[in-house]
Amino acid sequence: MKKRVYYIFILALFISCETTKDDTILTDFGRVFVSSNTQSKISIFDFSDINNKTIVEYAITSDDAEGIYYDKNRDIVYQVDRENNRLNAYSKLSANEAGSGILPSAISTSDFSNPRGLTSDNNIAIVAQDASEDNGQQNSLFMYDVSATEISLRNQFSVNFPLWDIQLVGNTLYAVEDESDSLAIFNNFFGNSEGAITPNFKIKLDGVVRAHGLFYNLENDLMIITDVGDVTSGIEDGQLIIIEDFNLKTSLALQQVDKAIPKGEMLFIKGSNTLLQNPVDVIYHNAANRIIVAERSTNGGMFLSFEYPNQTDNVNEFNSSPLYSINYNGISNLFIDQ
Question: What is the longest distance spanned by two Cα atoms in the chain?
């Protein structure tokens, strides 16, 4: 299949200086790295110049990619390649001409199939494998030693629940339990030996149908989850779930019989104005106080950004319109460089 060369596109968003929740002026939104299930490219939405927003796109050889991570200290992008069932590294990304084709500087062996989330810290990367016929219905976590020139498998862990998104924060691994309303937490993750492992605990999220994406912000103790709803219903029932004071609410939930955070203790962005049908991933920009979403179904894929909701009068559901929305076919995963 012939790969096309992609060029820089100027985003005609025409947004003036935005203000954050506390009314400070937003001057640098940073860069967001994007994967696609249908396009052979890595894209970087660059908001560092508020008056000249651009998308820088690099052609790659995979037509189906998922998790993505950027190591800014070493200028390396790691991306999960679903087409070839491997983890790829693209080194010295900024040295490549925008719009050029790039090849991996390192690739893993094909250890997994049906991969989803990717998380990384320093020289370690972890890939989540969701169960499928191709992998013998095995849900697994694959840990790799990674660098610009070499990716090698260190450990494989099996878990007894379906996986989607994952995030490593220090020594704690957060994992979405796919096809459920639950979130699993592995404390002291690096203390596990290879083989079957179990989370320290799971919590349920009242009002959630099928969780997919997650993003935890340690500084604010803020957890954001995406819910794709009932994908067979044909109803636009996707939503975002925001949990402030996450550790406190988790501790309280664990004292309950159902181990659930009540719906009234969370904020929801949902409804016809949101364009949310199948939100598969989410990130949060701390300084800008913005929530960015990979919406997989609407228009074939959209990059959406929402203002953080301002809770008043005990209202916890917000039918918010995106601050801006950009069509992006097959959008599957996000990483923010901030």
Answer: 57
d(CA 143, CA 128): 9
Cβ contact 282:295 at 8 Å: no
Give the chain's length: 338
* φ, ψ (nearest 5 deg) of residue 98: -55, 135
Paired with 212 in beta bridges are none
| φ, ψ (nearest 5 deg) of residue 110 | -85, 85
Q: Output b/e per residue, 205-223; b: 16+ Cβ within 10 A.
A: bebbbbbbbbbbeeeeebb
What 3-state class would DSSP assign to 97? Answer: coil
Query: Is residue 30 within 8 Å of residue 336, measured between CB atoms?
Result: yes
Q: Give φ, ψ of 308 to 5 degrees.
A: -65, 130
pTM: 0.91
- In tens, the pLDDT along 282-301 reads 999 988 899 999 999 999 99
Q: Angle CA(12)–CA(14)–CA(15) in degrees, nearest 5?
A: 130
Segment 143-159 mean pLDDT: 98
As a whole number of Å, the CA-based R_g of the chain is: 19
Is the Cβ–Cβ distance between 178 and 212 less than 8 Å? Answer: yes
Question: What are the Cα distances from residue 35, in Å, to 57, 280, 303?
Answer: 11, 12, 11
pLDDT in tens, 91-121: 999 899 999 999 999 999 999 999 999 999 9
User: What does the alpha-carbon distance between residue 210 and residue 183 come to, in Å, rounded to a whole number?
Assistant: 11
- Residue 320 in contact with residue 309, Cβ under 8 Å? yes
Work out the burial of residue 61: count CB atoms within 10 Å of its CB; fewer than 13 is exposed, 13-18 middle, 19 or more buried: middle
Domains and CATH numbers, the chain: 9-16+30-337 (2.130.10.10)
- In this prediction, residue 28 carries a pLDDT of 52
